[in-house]
Each structure stands twice: as C-alpha cells, then as structure tokens.
Amino acid sequence: MARADYIHVARVQHHMTRRRDILQTHPEVRNLAGPTPVTALWVIALVGVQLALSLLVGGTRWWIWLPTAYIVGATIDHALWVLIHECTHNLVFRRPQLNKLTGIVANLPLVFPAALSFGRYHLLHHQHLGELDYDADVPGPLESRVIKGSMLKAAWLAAFAGIQGLVRTHRLKKVSFFDRWIAANFVTQICATGALYWLVGPRPLIYLAVSSISAIGLHPLGARWIQEHFVFAEDQETYSYYGPLNRVCFNMGYHNEHHDFVTVPWSRLPALKRAAPEFYDTLYAHRSWTRLLLRFVFDSDRTLFDRIVRPSRD
Q1: 199: how many CB neighbours lie within 10 A of its CB?
Q2: Nearest 5°: phi and psi at 182?
Q3: 251: left (phi over 0), alpha (psi -120 to 50) or beta
Q4: pLDDT tens digits for 10-31?
C-alpha cells in the first residue's frame, strides 16, 4: 500500500558500518581513492560539444532541435552534472579551488548557475543523509503529500530542477546559501549566457535550457533521482544501478559504492564493487532506469514518502 509517512529510523547510516567492514576485509580498496585529473579533459570536451551543438541546431526547426536537446543534449548535460559531482568531492584535482573552478566551467552549458550551490547541499546530503533539516535530497512533507497520482508524479519529475533548486533549498532554513564561490558561479554564468545571447540570439540558449531541464527531469536519466534513495527493499536506504547507461554518465549508478567511499572517483567505482562482491551483490539494485521511471510514475503504491528519514543532528 502507498505510504502516508516516511520510514522513520534512529540508527546510523549503513554506509558507515559497511565502509568499516569492507576496509577490515579488503584493505586494498584504499588504493582506489584519490583524484583523477583526466576528468577535467572530459569537462572541456563535453562543454565544447554541447556549445557547438547549440550553435549547430539552435536555429533549426523545432522537430530537429527539440529531439536533439532531449536525446543528445540531455545526455551531455547529465554527464556534466556527474562531473560537477566529482568536483564537489575534490575528485578531479587535489586542490579544492581547482575543483571549484572546474565545476564552474562544467556549469557553462547548463544555463542555470547551480554547480557550486549543488556542491554545498550535496555534501550535507552525505553528512546528514535522511535528515529533513539538512538533506535537500529528501522530498519535504508538503511536497510528499501533494505529489500523488501518475500525472502529478510525471509533472514533479519534469519540474525536478526547479523543485530541487528553489523549493527544497528554501525548506532547509538552517543552511546558509551564499558564499564567494557561489557568487562567482552566478556572475560567471550570467556573463556567459549574456554573451551568448548578445552574439547569436536566443535560439541556442533555448536549446541549452531544454537540454538542461531534461537532463534531470522527465527522462530515463532522470530516473536516477528515484533509484538512489527511494526504498524498494526493507531497511535498505541507498540503491545502485548497474545498467548500460552507466557508460554515458560516468558510472553514476554505483551509488551504494559512492556513499560508502566518497573518495573513490567515477572511474574506479566498478573496481570497488568487484573488490567486495560479498557486500554489494546481496543488495537490491536496479538494472533499467527506463523501467524504474515507468514503475514510479504509474504504480499508485509508489509515493514520495518512500524514503528513510532520521532525526536531525544540529
């Protein structure tokens, strides 16, 4: 039956105990940690391709640019969000400042200035997993009560970028938003989008905006927001995805592995799973984001309350 409230627990995250147990059993996994500077080359390449596509198809008929934005552009933008995620955990360079600068560059085709603010809330997500006062990944109580039925769930996914960026950050009143790096992200993005508009007009920006919204919205790749922490197995808080789309999103589906070892970069997450199969092969995992998306939208028993929450620690 559909839940009318969250799953409340008082225990610590399983990630803490599993990480300890894996290190005791497989101490060699420590060698998988550390930054991967080649990720910066992927950032530059994907930013260049997406900006080039915006110029190439932005002025074409809608039946050309719109499918291109939804299929190709959204895939590129989703990959860029994964690389911004790598920057957030300082997994590109050792110096935090260089990671922040790389995140700002990765943000350029995404139109909306969000890379550095995402980083702030994402680190809190790890530190305060499932705590409503600090974890912006958890749908709020009002949000969870309102979003019911297939139409509203589909609309919720389509508008996920705005919900995550505006509704949930407003809910986390104990978290301050601005700092100098977030301000630099805003200024850089405003200048870049303004320059693009001045040079070539609005059409490339429309292509970029649709790509950006689709990348984390009503799209097979958008099913990742359901996959990561919506409960599908009793007492399991985090879920991995082991399907083929990991190849176009830098292994972002390896989410249990990531939460267990946040210092392991995207390129070594499959090796982490292979090194400790007895810890990961027994966990419930998803194999298809498309199937998961359809299941979430059309199954009336699936709601936004399908989350584990715990008391907030100040």
Answers
A1: 9
A2: -65, -40
A3: left
A4: 999 999 999 999 999 999 999 9
Q: Which of 309, 305, 306 is CA-nearest to residue 144?
A: 305
Helices (H), the chain: 14-25, 39-57, 62-68, 74-88, 96-107, 115-127, 141-146, 150-158, 160-162, 169-171, 180-200, 203-215, 224-227, 255-260, 269-275, 277-280, 289-298
pLDDT reported for residue 147: 96
| Cα end-to-end distance, the chain, whole Å | 34
193 neighbors 205 (Cβ within 8 angstroms): yes
**Which pLDDT belongs to residue 131?**
97
Helix (H/G/I), strand (E/B), else coil: 304? coil
Residue 1: partners with Cβ closer than 8 Å, 6 or more residues away: 301
- 242 three-state secondary structure: coil
Summary mean pLDDT of the chain? 96
- At residue 29, φ and ψ (nearest 5 deg) are -65, -15
State residue 178's pLDDT score.
85
Q: Tokens 């995404």 label which residue?
A: 110
Q: Give the span between the Cα atoms of 187 and 134, in whole angstroms.
A: 26
